[in-house]
Amino acid sequence: MSETELPRILCVDDEPNLLAALERNLFDQFDVTTANGGEAGLAAMAEGAPFDVIVSDMRMPGMDGAAFLALARERAPDTVRILLTGQADAESAIAAINQGAIFRFLSKPCPTEELVATLQQAVELHRRTLLERELLSTTLASTIKMLSEVLSMVAPWAFQRSAMLQTCVRHATQKLAWPNRWEVQAAAALSHIGCVSVPGDVIQRDLADGELSDDERKLVDAHPEVAHRLLTAIPRLEAVAEMVRYQARPAPADASADVARGAQLLRASQYLIRCLARKQPMAQAIQGLKTLNPAVSYEIVEALGDLRLSVDSGTRKARVRELIPGWRIEQDVVTKRGMMLLAQGSELSVTAIVALRNLHATGAISEPLLVSFGMEAGGGEASVTVGT
After folding, report:
1. How far is CA 362 from CA 325, 355, 356, 365, 367, in A?
2. Dihedral, CA atoms, 267, 273, 275, 277, nearest 10 degrees?
3. For all residues of the chain together, what is the average pLDDT?
4. What residues have CB less than 8 Å from 300, skipping those under 6 apart?
5. What is the pLDDT of residues 156-185, one digit of tens each?
6. Rounded alpha-carbon distances, angstroms, from residue 79 to 11, 134, 334
7. Of the four listed, 59, 130, 177, 268, which is most buried by Cβ atoms within 10 Å?
8. How confident is the model at residue 30 (pLDDT cuts 50, 70, 90)?
């Protein structure tokens, strides 16, 4: 809402005379819409942008204020809700407050000055909520992207594995009606950030199911705890940090439902990726998922049941930020001025990738580059929309 627009207010009541009075008393300070009852209020909410504030009567035929405001909360959680009623019924008022998360409870008849002051406070709360959400979304999305880019430079093989994990999680969460799905998507993107503390050759051998010494195994097994310590320092990523912490083992009994099922989805996805890396057919991997111990939920198995990932060698075009050590260049890489950088057939090293990224950042080279690879995850860039 711009500074010049009036705040949008929805007034819901079953008394037409009261609605007319509210519209008459508020029209010069607010953009008022009225609705005769709860059903009409829900219909009004479905038209146009969300309202800043909803004012509802408690006693209405068919759908009372408690039920209406509870539904209003589900459909427009950021809209501030006010209950206006003449009933001296404490039980009904408590029900409305609990079900609809009421901002303020006002008794009828309510003086216009008191109502206007309350509406102004509610509008200010609505504005703060939207600003905080926008700041949260922008800041967290940038933080997740930055950490993912750090991982891609420090531990490219771990970055590639987290990219495959994101592909699995995005596929599953599109089918799962989970709240805060962005948290498990963020957990997938940051699942291997703890690998920055593990030597690159150890990570590479572990991901290829190579042999590790006892000390090396301890380093690898500790990476979720390292990640947890890093992520808990970032506000609003507490649940994400817990999911990452328990990505390889069941979450404790006192963990929240979001954390438990998010960690379970990460564990299931990692199992599939390891099966495919061993060249197991997808159908066989899914069957194994059904008998995984500790077990994962049926809804997660179903959501991943038609997942398609390719782990075969092949050739494709890749962005510079997606490059992984060990890939081969299948077409000469030259600068825009014609200077040869890498000849066809060159194997990419960490040093070469860093140099290519620096050159791309300055605009000296163009992308994509033609490469051959040993494992494909459908793209490696972290992309998380916070709040969805």
Report:
1. 22, 11, 10, 8, 13
2. -150
3. 86
4. 172, 176, 261, 264, 265, 268
5. 778 878 888 998 999 999 999 888 889 999
6. 13, 15, 55
7. 268
8. very high
